[in-house]
Amino acid sequence: MFIWKAMDVPEKKRVMAWSLFFGFLLLMIPSHAGACSCNWKGPFLTASKDAPLIVLGKIIRHHPDGTSPTMDVLVLETLKGGILDSGMVVQMGDGMHCRPTLDVFPPGSKWILALNGQGAKPGTGLAISHCGEYWLRVEDDYVVGSIDGGLNQIKRTPLHEFKNRFLYPRFSEKISGRIEAGKQFRCPFGSRFEFILEPAPARWEIFIKEYGRDENLSRLTPPFHFVPNPREIEGWHLSDNPSACANRSYKADAGPANPRKFIFSPEVGKKIDGIGAARAVTDEEIKDVQKFGRGELTIEKFKLEAGNDGCPKIEWMDFSVQLDGGY
């Protein structure tokens, strides 16, 4: 100030100079406010697609001290990915990273957490991003939050319905291929399934499997008796003279129609006709299977070779299959 007086600097200019000087000092001080900027990645069912790990967990305790606050989470169920332990530590917001703060997640509360999504900047650990809806609260077996829809559109849905939508989103896919006698064909579709043509002597059988399970989810495709099932593909089905095959099933006059229609559901072997089932499946259960998943396999081209008892074998077959379903 004394220098400026000596230099006859006007008072107004001196105030402006000091203001600029202190403004510069403020810019030099680290600030956590607004340190993260990111675009909204969408509601949970959209944003969580990029998260490698998704769990249903209970918040145990907070660790707010230090430069990187964390919280301990007890994992109640893993919905995507894998972990080695039921407990985990999640890095939370410190103002310098795109993460929510601890106060959003009180101890004792339950959440569905999508971890290490875009913007989480997890470093070497696990973290939650706030660049989209990467968490949903669980209250009394209901899921509450931005499940789908627009920004800040809060919804409430039963937990079991949410898990079905999350694990088995809607799909519509077409697969094409060629298969040769004795070979297996398999191709993934949807989010958790495989379409398989499983070889057997002189034929193939259509299988739909879910990753991690051996169950054929299409095995409840009707009809069950008296006529060949559309899941089974045999040479005599494609012959100009099916009755020449002495060993044909049910002594049928023709094979299944082309395209071959089948149904499937992840509930087969669980809620529907599960282990120890003491009764036959009902018409309503068959409708539930069909409601979830439907397939149509079209045999495009094929070549037959003569077989014993007039039963030809399929040397090769070109096919396409349309698969639709999900919740």
Walk me through what this model shows.
- The chain has 327 residues and is α+β, with helices and mostly antiparallel strands.
- It has 2 domains: 44-167, OB fold (Dihydrolipoamide Acetyltransferase, E2P), CATH 2.40.50; 171-325, no CATH class.
- Helix content is 14%, strand content 35%.
- The protein contains 5 helices and 16 strands.
- The chain has helices spanning 2-6, 11-28, 44-47, 159-167, 283-292; strands at 53-63, 70-80, 87-91, 110-115, 126-127, 135-139, 142-145, 155-158, 171-180, 185-189, 193-200, 203-210, 232-234, 260-264, 293-305, 313-325.
- The strands form 3 sheets. Strands 5-3-2-1-4-6-7-8 form an 8-stranded mixed beta sheet, with helices on one face. Strands 9-16-15-14 form a 4-stranded antiparallel beta sheet. It has a 4-stranded antiparallel beta sheet with strand order 10-11-12-13, with no helix packed on it.
- The radius of gyration is 31 Å and the shape is elongated.
Structural class category? alpha+beta
Report the C-alpha radius of gyration, rounded: 31 Å
N/C terminus separation: 74 Å
Overall 3D form: elongated
Elements, N to C (H/E): HHHEEEEEEEEHEEEEEEHEE
pLDDT below 50 for ≥5 consecutive residues: which ranges? 1-7, 20-34
Largest sheet geometry: 8 strands, mixed
Fraction in helix: 10-25%
Record field, number of beta strands: 16
How many separate structural domains? 2
List the keywords:
single chain; 327 residues; alpha+beta; OB fold (Dihydrolipoamide Acetyltransferase, E2P); four-stranded antiparallel β-sheet; 5 helices; 14% helix; elongated; disordered N terminus
